[in-house]
Specification:
Elements: H1 6-14, H2 23-34, H3 40-46, H4 53-70, H5 86-102, H6 105-112, H7 119-137, H8 143-160, H9 167-180, H10 199-222, H11 246-259
Helix pairs in contact: 2-4, 3-4, 4-5, 5-6, 5-7, 6-7, 7-9, 8-9, 9-10, 10-11
Length: 267
Amino acid sequence: MVALPPALLFLLACHGADAPPSPHDRQTYARLLGETERPAAAVREACAAIRHDGLRGDCQLAALGRADREEQGTLDGWCDALDDGTPRSECWFVLGERRRRMGALEEAAAACGRAGPFAADCAQHLWADAVVALEQDAPPPLWPERLPAIARAIDRWAALLPMVDDLPLRMWTRFYERGLSRPGAPLDLDACRPLPRPDADRCRTAGTGLYARRIARRADAAGVDVCDRPARTAAWRDLVPARSHPRLDTELAALQATRCDEAAVVP
């Protein structure tokens, strides 16, 4: 009897398999995946002989992975040839990732849109990459002059990825978080000051939220009692380098309010 690896057994559970594969299905699966000289498309077609739904879907996806490595064209038509449900959704996710790596962003977005329950994760890789590119092209001193172009790019992504709720807000937040936390520079909310509203407000909100999360996480990791320091930015620069700002002080006070007795807080 062919033994299935734990990772495959987990995948079968995700596919919703009610009963384990038969010995014949296991043997067919192992034989097909071992035929490394056989064209990937032929392996995919042969997977249809496997009766177990989960194992058949995994066989089809393994064939897709081989085709991806073999660089056999665009792989168009692969996903529609797979079983409906999880295998087909995973296939569109894989194609979305592949097209993203190739730089075919509109095609990647279209593939993500067909990835069913995996659509949001597929789309996140796309828009997160887009934010990185925007931020690298527009450091804080250039924000005022680059805002119109950045806004157009974000609106374009919102149109390409309608499956993502509140995408413009997510992209603006990530953009300002990255810009305010560049390596080697302290977090500085004054960088938001030259921006028009509502961008200045979005920038400050992103920066204060990022600061609050980092303070809480790093204090916990370092074993620092948040009640032992005053709620002033300068007292916390060993954990999060930042220029003093009233909004950051307010975030520190809010953190202490949730964790400390009033008498225990250092004034």
